[in-house]
From TrEMBL:
GO terms for molecular function: ribonuclease P activity; zinc ion binding. Zn(2+) binds at C55, C58, C81, C84. It catalyses: Endonucleolytic cleavage of RNA, removing 5'-extranucleotides from tRNA precursor. GO terms for cellular component: cytoplasm; ribonuclease P complex. Belongs to the eukaryotic/archaeal RNase P protein component 4 family. The gene is rnp4. It comes from Acidianus brierleyi. Consists of a catalytic RNA component and at least 4-5 protein subunits. This is Ribonuclease P protein component 4. It is an enzyme of class 3 (hydrolase).
Amino acid sequence: MKKLVESRSLDLIDMAVDLVYEGEIDLAREYIKLAREYSAKGKIKLPIEYKRKFCRRCNVPLVPGITERRRIRRKVLIRTCLICGWIRRYELRENKTNKSSECRSENREKRNH
């Protein structure tokens, strides 16, 4: 049952994105609302790539150039919903843990030489 609910939710989100390209933003918003309801009632977490496909404030699918603006500033991706103004920022840098361990190993090598 959970697989069925999950697949239906993901299909609705994909169909909503297609509807935005056709100009049906209101119908796409309803599809997103349905998908969120299904996943909430079925107690299913949506995958992160699907969570990032819609605005969490107004439930509009985010399509760059149509309903979303993307900007990159100082290694930060800024996504803005053009319908309601919702802003979300994502760091584009590598994990800090990986960088610190790499720096430590480089420093050890320098000390040994």
